[in-house]
Amino acid sequence: MQNVDQYYPTSGRVILHVDMNAFYCSVHEAEDPDQYRGKATAVAGSVELRKGIIVTCSYVARRMGISTGMQVQKALRICPSLIVIKPDFHLYRKYSNAFMQIAYSYTPLLEAVSIDECYLDITGSRQFGTPMEIAETIQRRIMEELGLPCSVGIAPNKLLAKMASDLKKPNGISVLRLRDVPKILWDKPCNEMFGIGGKTAEKLRKLGIYSIGQLAAADENMLVENFGVMGSWLKRAGNGIDHGIVNPEREQSKSIGHTTTLPRDVIGLAEVRPILLNLSDQVARRLRKQGLVASGVQLTIRTPDMKTITRSRQLEAPSESGEDIYKSVCDLYVRHWNGEKPVRLLGVTLQGLIAKEDSAIQLDLFDYERQPKKESLNKTMDMLRNKFGENAVLTAGMLSDSHSARLRNHKERGTSLQKDNLLSVESDKE
Predict the structure, then answer these.
(1) 0.70 cut: is pTM over it?
(2) Ranges for the UmuC domain (predicted)?
(3) What residues form the annotated binding site for Mg(2+)?
């Protein structure tokens, strides 16, 4: 395994900003490429062309002079062939959830800031490769699985990650380190700094501050006198300093799901079981992270010819356990799918979510005795994964035959196996 430690700072964070390009138009193109691919398109906020405003437009339209906020009537004068599309927010949410599911599979530290962008803290994701490799993989998967272009910024903080993602559009990847700030940012006008609007930039100009470099060199006391507490932030921003953290999703979800497109078609329960176990473990972890329990589960299966079926069932009792979820989805697979047919994609979705503190979980005597140990084990596993990444702790059932054999060799050399088939995998440096 490649040693990727050299690509990570010994202290601090590694942050990605994933920004979808011309998102609404790109979604329509992905849904109907024959009608929209390579054409000037725009999504308008009103179906009335006389009053409609362009919400977003394709890059083809932008090259013709169309821009966000322009009246549709004016846009059609500039480009008579412009295709004006009525918004479909249900469709946009569907694609938004899908691209964030892909990003989430590389770190649980995901902060969605809008329908088409999110921050990722990948400091603990070394097992997936270098920051550039992770960014390239996320970008490639979003394009291959959803047909959507995106730009990715890589930086030590959220501010610079956001600035980096704007450097190369569409479909670019940019790295912006603190030492790069003077060369890349300081010549730019202040209004190109994320967080500085037109009014603030105008006020800075009146103070003789035109560029980000001049802002970085400005006297902080003077900035505080003119902008209040924001003055200190302006000084830090000019120097590329940002102490904000990536805040994972906090709002209670209506459902929690995870899907995976498989590198090859799989056939039969024996091949499906490790995949369902991985998916069940991931959704259960997200469930516990939000302090929720689920009362229902849904299995999604997609065939090589892109036909999708879903089957769902209620759990015997509300649960946060990956084991309960896994047993239920395996049962759904056996009951509703011909095991001789190939499968291209599998997904597990939890439904009927309620706060754990509001649920009345009934336990028999045996479960009652085991529950404290199971909860303690889950907390330990979650803590290790939060710190070291998704693959820091695996169950035996998740491993391929080759990986299991390698770990058996570790055991023979003295590596101990935890109870309940929990295996601590090799360190980042191996």
Answers:
(1) no
(2) 15-197
(3) 19, 116
